[in-house]
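Changelog-adjacent note: as of this version, every example in the card shows the full chain rather than a window. The one below runs 419 residues end to end.
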Amino acid sequence: MESGVGSSSNLAFLGTYKCKGQLFVISIFSGCSLEDIFLSLSSKYEEINPLSMSLQYLAPQHKMYVTLNDNDDVRNMIHLHMCMKLSVIELRAELKDQIRGGFNMERDYGVELEYRKVWKGKELAMHDIYGTEKDCYDKLRCGFATGCRPMIFLDDTHIKNKYKGSILVAVGKEANDDLFTLAYSVVDAENDCNWEWFCINLRSVLLSQHISGFENFTFFSDRHFGIIKAVNLLFSGSHHAYCLRHLVDNFVKQVMRSYPLHNKKHWSSVFKKAAYAPSHQEFMQHINNISESMPLARKFITNSEPESWANALFRGKRWGVMNNNMAESWNNWVKPARYLPIVGMVDRIRVQIMNIMHQRRETTLAMVQELSPKKEKTLTSTYIESRNLIVHRSCGSKFDVVDGDKSFAVYLCSSPYPN
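Full-length structure tokens:
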């Protein structure tokens, strides 16, 4: 009898364990945990103790045993056997003290391994599971061109090690609205020269994916002058959207400090309403309210280029995105790496990117619906909300949509505005 591990609805492998001349067989399903495998083995062989023992599996290509430390290692093991179309996973159990002591190969097989050979074996195993570094970076370019909307978030984050510096990053948004790392680079500081150099290389990467122009692209930033200058110079025809959160912070610091009796929370809210307003009329209504209450605000608003942050004036596509949160999420995602020396830092980020790409690939292979999970949820929510709208057809693909006391012209096939 075989003992099962995991859900019976997933792909199954046979796990074999030899001990004292006996062969024990269990079923291992994709999605199972390390604890599941331990429980299944201990039910067949009582001497298996997860507190004092560690499980290992035989890596099929290099014939070396790899220790299963956590559930990520189990997923890697299953993925490796799945890719190589193998149905049997050879397991063994070792006392944890023996594994920590090292030189198992010398003790068990009489073979002494040099550090260089062990390191090379580890690199080969990483390549078998995740692919080579070159392939992974090439897939980032291809993945952005084929799986992401044409919007790029630009930002910098400070390095926290002894010699400081900055990381410049370009991030996209993939089909499930999660961050997609397109490019990053270590520089001595965030300045105009480094942003121009970074964008020159970014432009080269995008053009290598047969992108003929940037008219459909939208770049998001915190309004750093170096980014504004580089985008205008190198991505002609593209649209540049400014982060609303940074703009509101500047509004509070530069304008509202002159009006200490005004409620910051209230007027920040009015400023945001102006940014989100779908029509020019509604936008001007909120702006006039601000200007009448705080005359100094009019100059700030004019100089802030509202065509780059107000929905009613923005001529490109921003897909409902108003802030540069995606780049800031990336900065937080790599925060532990920013404290490492430069080589370790860059390699740590590389491995993080490989891991997340691998996890998303597995998740995508298991999907059954047409759209990504977040988009399915958004579509359902939008459909429910839209049932309260009243729709009148004008002509062809033009509709008049009534929402309460407001009416909007909607063009389904194309925009009525020229690019």
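Structural remarks: The first strand starts at residue 3 and ends at 5.
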